Amino acid sequence: MCSYNKVNGSWACENKEVMTDLLKEELGFPGYVVSDWNAQHTTNGAANGGLDMTMPGSDYGGKRILWGPQLASAISGGQVSKARLDDMAKRVLASWYLVGQDGGYPATNIKANVQANHKENVRAVARDGIVLLKNGGGILPLARPQKLAVVGSAAVVNPKGVNACADRGCHGGALGMGWGSGTVNYPYFSAPYDALNDRARADGGTVTLSSSDAAAAGASAAAGADVALVFVTSNSGEGYIKVEGVDGDRNDLDPWHEGNALVQAVAAANKNTVVVVHSVGPVVLESILANPGVRAVVWAGLPGQESGNALVDVLYGLVSPSGKLPYTIAKKAADYGTAVVRGDDHFREGLYIDYRQFDRAGIEPRFEFGFGLCRWPSVSCRFSVSPSPVLPRPPPPPSRLRRSPHLQTQR
């Protein structure tokens, strides 16, 4: 699939160097190239560049017709060769035969239940991806607290309904996925509060809930609790949906809904505060970590439908945390050395993104790529990138990027 962006000044879906010279000839790709949704811009340029199929088709939703009769006209006029048309058809039909669609293809049953043990797998993936960033004084795992406070709108199911917003294009309640065309409807959703409440009641305890992001209400709920759990989020998605002033990409790296102020209020009211972050990507945590009452920070990512159950597994020590950060968490947004660009982007940073940028610029991150406290009590372990003693690697040429000092193994 060719993408929306330009490559070296020309649209990806009419870039011959990428689609034909590199993909089809140098790499020998035998399949067909299809455009991303409405990513085609021209007829002749796309066809001659190597595009084989247009998505979603000609004249979808009143868009310009670029394939179909326009392509036939370009071939009749000699702007696109018949050999190129034959190549398009051959590649598409080859894929059709490859997956056996020429005969005996099974009928579609959209009512079939294919979940099987899906929820068990989802729960395991969600809990194994949870990253323990801080655990001051070994407050985690929770030792059956009798009075638990749960704070934040991100702790409960969206009050409008778990599937209330098309393509998850809103930001209410617990965050399980971002928004856009790749989302799905939840068959059910285990919210953090529901799972925590069930566990606390099983232990003979009680839970006080503040399901808003109001700082005063959160502080009131947290006061007097043995432990206060406060939930903050940061969301993004595809640009065809605008959510709370965010047009696809996030406007900043702060928690949404004044999350920093909420944590500050809760941590001032309760010296045993645990912050749980559900986020699509890095969030600057400096304000949160500056609160003495914040004893632990748990990075729960985008956990999906088993959000609450997976979180309980980790918080109560049913499993040891094993997740590692898939990106670097900086002390400030400017440390990343990149920014959202409207229009042409020449990607002058090259390969120097995330930890490579921090290494080159000598910037100390708050939590490096690969960081994660991995067993009780808090012991930091990181990915190993050392060469295998069995299959040693040759020394890299001088032009190769140097290995990150932040990724050394600690035993």
What are the key terms here?
two-stranded antiparallel sheet, disordered C terminus, alpha/beta, Rossmann fold, six-stranded mixed β-sheet, 2 domains
List the helices and strands and how they pair.
Layout: E1 6-7, E2 10-11, H1 16-26, H2 44-49, H3 69-76, H4 82-98, H5 118-128, E3 131-135, E4 147-151, H6 192-202, E5 206-210, H7 215-222, E6 227-234, H8 259-269, E7 273-279, H9 286-289, E8 294-299, H10 307-315, H11 355-361
Parallel strand pairs: 4-5, 4-6, 6-7, 7-8
Antiparallel strand pairs: 1-2, 3-8
How would you portray this structure in words?
- With 411 residues, the protein is of the alpha/beta class.
- The chain has two domains: 6-98, no CATH class; 119-336, Rossmann fold.
- It is built from eleven helices and eight strands.
- It has helices at 16-26, 44-49, 69-76, 82-98, 118-128, 192-202, 215-222, 259-269, 286-289, 307-315, 355-361, and strands spanning 6-7, 10-11, 131-135, 147-151, 206-210, 227-234, 273-279, 294-299.
- The strands form two sheets. The chain has a six-stranded mixed sheet, sandwiched between helices. A two-stranded antiparallel sheet has the order 1-2.
- Helix 7 runs parallel beside helix 8 (259-269).
- The chain is elongated.
- Residues 378-411 have low confidence and may be disordered.
